[in-house]
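REVIEWER CHECKLIST
Item 1: Sequence provided? yes
Item 2: Single chain? yes
Item 3: Sequence as submitted:
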Amino acid sequence: MVDTGGSDAFTPDELETWSAVATLLEWLPVALDTQLQRDSDMSHFEFGILFALSRAADQTLRMSTLAGFANSTLSRLSRAVARLERREWVRRAPDPHDGRITIAILTSAGRDAARTAAPGHVALVRKLVFDSLTRAQAEQLGRSSLRIAQAIRADEPWRPESER
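Item 4: Structure as written out by the authors:
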């Protein structure tokens, strides 16, 4: 039996909130991956890489920067980028300003793949997230998520640049 009265146990309100967040953290990634795999033959992680590159200056990012955006190890990111390279959606090259650094560059085929995948992905996110909330709730979700992300890591979480 779990002692719910101690400081090492959730209060009933905390447990209700945390169980909802934990369920969301388990169910949402699966739903996003399922849709992207079915419709575009890519994972949500791979779509995130293409999306981040599509929003970057010159559609190019240092691999280390991209890993930070993706909250990924360089090893995991490198494997994903290798898969994207085989599809000719991304290419890697030495940084022209510092050859010790590797950059990832979105190709025109990768840009097309991201554009093709985006409508289905956006539609699912709208259906699952935005259609389930009022505008005020969605704004609060964004603010709350940012605060939690900042509590996890002090560095600024990735935010897309404005539309180009």
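Item 5: Key structural point noted by reviewer: The radius of gyration is 19 Å.
Item 6: Recommendation: ____
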